[in-house]
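Q: Hi! First time doing this. I have a protein sequence and I read that you can turn it into a structure. Is that right? Here it is:
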Amino acid sequence: MTPRVEAGRLLTLVDEIAGRRLLVIGDLIADEFIYGEIARVSREAPVLILNYDSTEVVPGGAGNAAGNAASLGGSARIVGLTGRDETGRRLLATLKRRRVDVAGVLRPAGYTTPTKTRILAGGIHSAKQQVVRIDRASGVRVDDTLRKAFAARVLREARSADALLVSDYGCHLVTPALVLQARRIFRQKTKAPIVVDTRYDLLRYHGMTACTPNESEVEHALGIRIGDDARVLERAGRTVLRQTRTEAVLITRGSRGMALFQPDRPTVHIPIVGSDQIADVTGAGDTVIATLTLALSAGATFEEAAHLANHAGGLVVMKRGTATVSASELRYAISGGAIGRAADAAS
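A: Yes, that's right. Below is the predicted 3D structure, encoded as structure tokens:
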């Protein structure tokens, strides 16, 4: 089933999400991109030698979700951890430039900012492609004292938020118990959604407004293989919906689009918008959850919010690296402008 959502309604939602107060909690990760040009093949080993060009550090994980929310016009505040190292300082500086409120970020002594380093190589006249990725964890265990300080800050900030976005990349900072505590605060609010994106603990979060796993995360959680089998996808979506007791499950499927599951309603299959010639999927899930959460907080139905998130996701995968989508880009794409042209214009 693929119901059509009128473009006019989506454009109205883009306007209505402006100023919505979104609290983003979770794992702050630095996405570092090292660019170089291929010089030659080494005589020491069958590897490429690159002439270094430049380094870029941008927010990943929860930081990218918050950056997307701010770029779309939302009022984004983030609570997480970062180090006092140079990477952490650059990460916070970038978030501030993107109009994200970082006052709630904790910076414990000895903590090293988790970093994903991607080395990209190419010729002078060719697009640079990723050749290797190096992941560096914080190296510091999140102890009970630090987790309690984080939880206290989350619960304090939740009282003034219109929506809660949970970005759990597996750094053991966010827990289902903390989200349950936040849910008790949000019960006092109307149209205040809690939306979760979790890399490894999908089935441990219960009673959310929505969750946005990608297909591989669903496969990992259930121990199955979905592929092109529509019946397996249907069973998987219904199983996640039932076990998490969530109001909606939105499974992102890459080039296959999205599938939206709600109790007692037919599954909604949403094809991708724009070109299927994807430039980079890095951080696309952060764009999707930021858009979905903002739309739900503005009163969108799950179908409307999913379609809006689909447009935003279609834009961001046409950009290289960890990127964001602006409200003006989203309006242009919804109004019939080519996704590719909108992305190129803002790159």
